[in-house]
Write a structure and sequence with these properties.
alpha/beta, 6 helices
């Protein structure tokens, strides 16, 4: 079976490579603003499914499994996606400073042989240390916040901002690999660990 990842996220590619899937990478070109969902769990799951289906359609009937994923940060009943600019990144980091927020990642899989689908999501709580304006400016200057939901990544320099987590670390990175593996085994009979 060939695996396809409907995402260009270097973090998701690395996670799937680390469990031996080595997927072909074909980022889904979809309009994410078309999803108007305000519930974070439903939003990330819907976007993951849209991405997976968008790419899977080109492989209909083939022995391929296509995976899509989407991640958001949720705090104060607001969904934080990727910042549009440095000012927005700074505002997001100020909001997260010294507080606990939730990270939701939705994933979807499409079995292209018959276009069967499955989707689920995971949530992890992340606690930030209090951040000074100097730390916020330095982190933004690193460039890391600009392509990440909530303006941070838990890996690399972003790890310096985080006091602790409750739940799946890999979910915060961008893909809850344990839950993905369990879901594929239960729904499709696909065992990654064998």
């Amino acid at each position: 079976m060939l695996w396809v990842l409907a995402s260009g996220s270097p973090r998701r590619i690395e996670l799937l490579n680390s469990i031996g899937l080595n997927p072909r990478v074909i980022p889904a070109d979809i309009d994410e603003s078309a999803v108007k969902e305000t519930n974070p769990r439903r939003m990330v799951t819907q976007l993951a499914m849209l991405k997976a289906l968008h790419v899977a359609k080109r492989y209909s009937g083939k022995d391929i499994l296509c995976i899509g994923a989407d991640t958001c940060v949720y705090i104060d009943e607001n969904i934080l996606g990727k910042p549009k600019n440095e000012a927005e990144a700074a505002e997001m980091l100020r909001t997260l400073s010294g507080r606990t927020h939730e990270v939701y990642t939705g994933f979807a899989a499409v079995r292209c042989t018959n276009m069967d689908t499955v989707a689920d999501s995971q949530v992890t709580k992340v606690r930030f240390k209090p951040l000074s304006e100097e730390e916020i400016a330095a982190y933004i200057k690193s460039g890391e916040p600009m392509d990440k939901a909530g303006a941070y990544g838990i890996q690399e320099k972003g790890s310096l901002l985080i006091e602790g987590i409750e739940g799946d670390y890999f979910n915060v990175v961008g893909l809850p690999v344990c839950k993905l593996g369990e879901t594929l085994k239960k729904e499709f009979g696909i065992e990654i660990l064998k």
